[in-house]
Design a protein that fits this description.
By secondary structure, the protein is α/β, with parallel strands linked by helices. It is built from five helices and six strands, in the order βααββααβββα. It is elongated.
């Protein structure tokens, strides 16, 4: 079930935590999800995980569109791959919410922006414009962020070495077995 963020009073780039904290929104999504399940012939979907809900809006970071994916009663912290494949395929259906939000990209790629990055999907279409294949190209999300603290003395020593043509490695804190032995270059090390 794909919905326009604006129809729900949303911008579409809200954080998962903000969406999860919006009890009125979650109640509305559940009502819509249950009705969609009934209309899809799935019967009463209360307590089931299908159909899933995607809230779509225009892309903001160079992708094709933005999605917030629900599983079903909370917003996914990134995006399920299967959901991204569905959103990408739906973007090629004329008149769909996904097609309406789509910022076309060169070629067959659809980039679905999500809370922690983006998923690229490659679509193959037949002569009639129908999707015949959807495959994951890559998913990108930040997996690490940090800081390195380097003493000023190390930076000054490296600058001094660079000026004098010395070696730019700083390995005097490594154990002796890890320090380079320039006299053994090209020799085999014992196993």
């Amino acid at each position: 079930l794909l919905l326009r963020a604006a129809d729900l009073g949303l911008a579409g780039d809200e954080t998962p935590a903000a969406l999860d904290a919006n009890a009125a929104l979650l109640d509305r999504l559940e009502q819509l999800r249950r009705e969609a399940g009934r209309r899809m012939g799935l019967g009463d979907v209360a307590g089931r995980v299908i159909p899933k809900v995607g809230i779509l809006s225009p892309a903001r970071r160079g992708g094709s569109l933005t999605s917030r994916y629900f599983t079903p009663d909370r917003c996914h912290r990134s995006h399920a791959v299967t959901g991204a494949l569905c959103v990408a395929a739906a973007s090629r259906i004329a008149g769909s919410v996904a097609a309406e939000m789509l910022v076309p990209q060169a070629g067959s790629l659809v980039t679905v922006e999500h809370p922690s990055g983006a998923i690229q999907v490659d679509l193959s279409l037949d002569a009639a414009g129908q999707v015949t294949r959807a495959s994951l190209v890559r998913t990108a999300r930040r997996i690490f962020e940090g800081n390195v603290i380097v003493p000023a003395s190390t930076i000054l020593a490296l600058a001094e070495r660079a000026e004098t043509g010395g070696e730019l490695t700083h390995d005097n804190h490594a154990s002796p077995s890890l320090q380079p032995d320039h006299g053994r270059r090209g020799q085999r090390l014992p196993a």
